[in-house]
Description:
Distance between the termini: 48 Å
Largest sheet: none
Structural class: mainly alpha
Number of strands: 0
Shape: flat
Helix content: over 70%
Amino acid sequence: MTTKSVKTRIASDVIGLSLVTFATTACGTLGGAAVGAGAGAAVGAGTGYGAGKGALIGTGVGAAAGAIYDITKKR
Length: 75
């Protein structure tokens, strides 16, 4: 196997495990990330900044907001 295929396989495994973990323990985080990605892509495309960059920023912000929501809701 080449170095690139090994890195791709490891990254796929890590991402898959992360998604399963999010789905079972932090639904607000995952939902926030999804909504943030969509909103960030729309804003990025509308402002000319780029939908991809907007989606990345929106995912991070949405995930953080969802995590905060989950923490405060469980108390």
